[in-house]
Amino acid sequence: MRKRWWKVLCILLLIYTVVGGLLMDVPRLHILNESIRNTFFHPPLWISMMILQMVSCIFSIAYIVKPNTFKDNIAAEFAKTGVAFAVMGIVTGMIWAKFTWGSAWSGDPKQNNSAIALLVYCAYLLLRSSMKDQQQRARISAVYNILAFATLIPLLYILPAQTDSLHPGSGGNASFGDIDLDNRLRAIFYPAVIGWTLLGVWFSTIGVRIQNLKNKQLLT
Asked: Which of 213, 202, 214, 212 is nearest to 1 (CA)?
């Protein structure tokens, strides 16, 4: 992961996303209008968040199978970055809701469940910071992290689909890809997902290296 090519790719993809997303011609759909440009920010941030938290969960499982401080650091740092991406996802969603639903926060089931999911992971970070013993912290937080990831799918996808919702893909509404993702948007949307995900991985690996250095200092 220390090779530079993927970091350069990340920067290029995000520049392409921002410049193309703000300047390209977009479909003029009812209600959405120019706010459709948020397609390159809000959904990709949530997709990237899911990927980051999935990586975090995988390393928590790996830690339980065979405890290792390096695995615990990876799980923790990817979870932290995932929380940051979730915050950005909620904020960009609120901006979009303001222009399309008339209110930044309308109590929509998808919004409420997203906030709950964020709080679940904030509790994970608080749990880690509350314990001083490294092995105990790693073991307990690994179990919690696995359970936290297990709640994401029901909270973000299954439960909102069972109730009335303004959010695309929930409450019987068509998903955004069915109604507003044409080939012009796809040309930026998919690179945006890759770019934001690589950025999350970049930040997470920096955090892992910092934690590894701290651990080495404690051992010396």
From this structure: 202
